[in-house]
Amino acid sequence: MKPFIAIFFCVLGLVTVSSAQDITKLEKIGAVDSFTKSEKAVVFNCQDKSQVQVTVLAPDLIRIRASFAKPISAKDHSWALAKTDWTTPRWSLSETNDAVLIRTDEIEVLVHRSPLLIEFRDAKTHSLINADEQPMAYDAKGLLKDMMFDPQAGTFIAAAKKVGFDEHFYGLGEKAARLDKRRSSFVNWNSDTPGYTEGKDPIYQTVPFFTGLQNGSAYGIFFDNSYRSYFDFAKSSQQRIWFGAEGGELNYYFFYGPSLKKILNRYADLTGHMPLPPLWALGNQQSRWSYYPDTMVEEVVSEYRKRDLPLDVIHLDIDYMQGYRVFTWDRQRFRDPKALSEKLGRQGVKLITIVDPGVKYQPVAKSAGQITSITPELEPQDQRYYVFEQGVQQNYFQRRTNGDLFIPRVWPGESVFVDYTLPAAREWWGGLHRAYIDNGVAGIWNDMNEPSDFVDQTGKNQIDVVSYDEGAKSTHAKNRNVFAFLMARATYEGLERLRPNQRPYVITRAGYAGIQRYSTMWTGDTNSTWEALALNIPMFTTLGLSGEPFVGSDVGGFMGRGNGELLVRAYQISFLAPFCRNHKVIDGYDQEPWRFGKYYEDIIRKYLKLRYQLLPFLYNTLAEAHQTGTPLFRPLVLNYQDDRNTYNLDDEFMIGNDLLVAPVVKADVTRRLVYLPKGTWYDYWTNKKYEGGTTISADAPLESVPMFVRAGAIIPTGPELNYVGEKPVDPITFIIYPDDKGSASLTLYEDDGVSPAYKQDGFRRTTVNAARAAAGYTVSVSAPNGSYNPGPRKFRFLIKSAGPTRNVITVADDGTARSVTIR
Ligand code: GLC
User: Fold this and answer.
1) Cys-Cys link to 490, which of 55, 149, 426, 438 (CB 3.0-4.6 A)?
2) Which pLDDT belongs to residue 774?
């Protein structure tokens, strides 16, 4: 074989790794012998000594746990879960010769005895939702050992499900892939993958949760297993989908909708509702690897202000530290970090610092004196590095099985990683953030937490690294995928303790299911290319469908050289993404909004200003994500799940229920096709009305991204701002888009945007209804509920119609129910 052909096949072998696992050859779980019923669960004892436990958690949530050739372990721990104390709902059990039927008000679980096959059905219609294609299986003979990361650490396990002729699959967290995952397969193994392109897999995160949608009806499966896991959505065989992992338990949660929104709500109950970040986190953010010294940071900010571009946050990448030592400041570059943050604060700009997991490996120098300073982060660290020393003294760093410290190489050179599975180590790490908080830093950016290791990115160099893991003392095969999750948890909890009156704001690159409890996220090291830009939409929507609502991407792309057109089109997506941050690699071409000239800068300004005006709408939708798990940045299928035309729509998205956006993701394009679902739509720019259920051709010059508002919506907007809190949100303008009957409605959520008081009743909900009246429109406003008081302000109501806007009225918001007539 010619060398290049050999290389080709070798590469092909690597990328099709999951197709190579023939799960039909694995040992199948034995037939049911007997079963026992308890208050919450049924345990099936199998002929081969395996056990299967079916636990009823909620009417629409069932847990399946299986052990192979041994009893189910009494130990039951998961990092992902936020809720384990479910109140068991009403359920019943009945049996026939062939099967056992477990029934809640919403789901029927039919467990066939021989072979042991599980079927989920709708309890009301008895129609099939999902069924095993083969019994759950395990690699009893070690057939797959050769391809496993660590054959010693576990046994391959898998479950296979029948696949529908027209079944579509969504979720799996961060994947460099399109929205509909049908006919694709994926691996979960958190990996540092700079410059990834579509199809690269795995990348940074692991969220082993997906939904299946068929005939408008959806179910979800969360396979809570942190080992390297695999998902095949009818790629290697048209007969089945399957999921499996290289160890751990076959342990999954089955959700029944039938609506996707209901599943996401339940998934948020199970793995955690995203807490609300501070409102300023929705502000525009600017970053660079790296802005230094302090005067350059100030220059960037003053450039923003001079150019009348809104800005809330500036990020300090790795060069603010002394030789990349986390929790230190380079005093040559940043003479007085506190003075800097205060100075920026006066201009309405906050500082975020990057914090990587790699702690420089630095045994004490012989000539070193004592560490006496109470602000060691500001002292020279070349003789003694306080973070390394404290961690060693307390034995918080990861070690290999033989007891040696594990020493990877990252930015500081030789480094060590914290064992974040140790509660005391997490607490210590959280407390170290004092070095930032005391200096006025507002939020923390966690990076390189797959964890990246320059010695070897596959994890092989870490294979024998042991983590405490609740006393299990397990190795890397189990812990890699939760490393970032636990680091983010340590960070979040640290910020909560250090600044109890403020909401923490953390950003992460890697994560595991449940990461939304502790961190927001961004999609890592993208390219400044049109292909990478096109991926923004399916990646953001997919993350939203995986329980991670607060997402964004480096605006303009991280690596390579962009151009003005690409940057504008990138902002036309990200100006509505929760995380809107322009960021660039160290050797990339500058791409702050003004770098490509006035023409492009003017367009970017228009979108950034629009973002700030839309903040009440964005925050309202973010609050919905917090409460219900329904993300802000949505694929159309989430709002229109009965509409087949939305099932694989990759180049449109919606914000909440009301705003549909159809960006341009190709060069030199000024018109595009836009699919509008059933209903009436207003062109955002012209107010022209369209009847949906069809595809239209829309004008898309560089200046204007096609946007449509759902008739029946009310969009709450505020004043133009340079930064969040610059002035009171007064008036709040309610832009009313009447539907065919002349009505529209909205419930507006507000709170102080800063403190955790919203978790009690520190919020305000106001319902606004508009209806066509004999002469004009009647707008009624409910008395608000919740204890948050925004102070005196005005409400402005504005009715949109095809053609120029008419009908504006402004009234004082006096906190009472009232009605006004607009003629
Ligand atoms: C990683 C991050 C990137 C950052 C760089 C330097 O590549 O993904 O955002 O700029 O490290 O810290």
Assistant:
1) 426
2) 87
